[in-house]
Amino acid sequence: CCCCCCCWFAPFSFLCRFEIVGTFLGGKRVDSVIYIGRMEPVRKKAKRKKKDGLGSSASTLTEEEKKAAIFAIEQISQVDNRKGPTPGLIRNKLKRREVYKEQQLQKKKDKKEKRDKIRKLREQLGEDAPPKQELRTIESMRVSDGTVVEEDDEEVVKDEETDEFAEYFIDGKEPKVLVTTSNKPVGKTFKFAEELINIIPSAEFKPRRGFALKTIVKQASAKGYTDLIVINEDSKKPNMMLFIHLPDGPTAYFKLTSVKLCREIKGHGRATRHYPEVLTSGFSTRLGKTVSRMFQSLFPQSPEFQGRSLVTFHTQRDFIFVRRHRYVFRSKEKAGLQELGPRFTLKLLSLQKGTFDSKFGEYEFVAKNKFYVDRKKHYL
Question: Which residue would you say has higher pLDDT here, 39 or 250?
């Protein structure tokens, strides 16, 4: 069914190695050439393939032909696309860039050819095609930290019925959020705070005016605020966010990165004051569930669907990506999303029981460098 041989010849004044792989499909032999990890169909055989009607359906293939097709899929999947000189060994800067660019273009072309060949072979095999290989990503190879919980875990459900956020989900309590900044902030921090207020319907902004944070916590609790958000800045850019749930905590401290205001997003829409839907995804541990409920408690639990707005908190590799979109119905069958902004990324640095207390506070989680030595281990 399959034959393989090697030959050597020297086009362009240097030696190149070719491997000829032959497979029998639909009663006809198809030869392919593997050139240093690259597979190209032989021209003469490719022309004859169309004339002889190689595109047979799975029902017309014999068992030997199916085995040959499966073997061909495995061989194509194992092809190594790396070829040519190493750009790092080329001393000339212009030549190095040129070689690197050519290799990247060739690599994309080889990947496309490989995908097309595998797709055609799978179409011929139909239901007999081998299962697709699972992609090896950091998420798929995640190492559990021992706190991952199932969706309907009874212990977690009972804890959520009596935690600090239960009254927002069970009784429908309306949140009231206070947003402030660090002392003497600059323009971009003010603009980010303004757009954060537009995301959270019941949020209000108050300037800091030099008050201590513990004083602000007491005054906000006395005036009936349910949450306090403090935006810190560094080098005239917002870089940290402190989130305190009132009156009894918890307190979460986040690193704030990748901030993009609405006007910086190409093709952004204009938001309305309707209550948005809130979507939290990727939070699978006990710590992640707590952080997820903190975000959900910022919004009223009765979304106004006529506004068609959606706020997403998606965690991946312990980074929390915050986005706001609007549903756009292009037809009766097709719908899309239009980003409204702003967009930013959070990373949990610490979670403290109770309200803010930097000296005597009890911490549930504190991010340390040793936690992230193994990139496959996540805590949210």
Answer: 250
